[in-house]
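Comment thread on ticket #2218

A.B. wrote:
> Attaching the input chain for the structure job we discussed in standup.
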Amino acid sequence: MRHRKSGRKLKRTASHRKATLAALATSLLRHKKIRTTVAKAKETRRFVERIITRAKRAVQREADGGPKDVHARREVARLIHDRVVVKELFEEISKKVLDRPGGYTRIVKLGQRHGDGAEVAVLELVDYNVGHETRKGGKQSKRTEQKVVREEAVPVDQSTAPAEAGRTSTRASS
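C.D. wrote:
> Ran it. Output below, let me know if you need it in another format.
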């Protein structure tokens, strides 16, 4: 029995699980949205929210006139191995969530994956809703959404790109 044992094992050893969660957290903080299984999303949410809270508290202490909290940056850097992401976390993300008392992430279930039937979800940062746009009217079909995406793509200008002049674009023909 697993009484009082929190967290999921994800069918991995402890070191593999730690590396997986660190990689998922890094991707989430870099891209603001990732697509993964529901179990991994729920574990990554716990992992990322602790990191964001640590960064947020460090930024609050610095804003109150304290010195730069190097220790908090090093603690986060132990888990997130990308310096650019750590810098972005402390300079941009933590300042954006400064007034939020928690709940920095959202999990949206997408259904089952075709290959193996696993439950898939999108894990995203709440304050970065760049992908959500409300549709006006009724429901659109997937076909209509694909057409809209294709039309939004910028066509190659034939006069400015001489190397592309001889080729025909597959997007333009469809």
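A.B. wrote:
> Thanks. Noting for the ticket: The chain has a mean pLDDT of 84.
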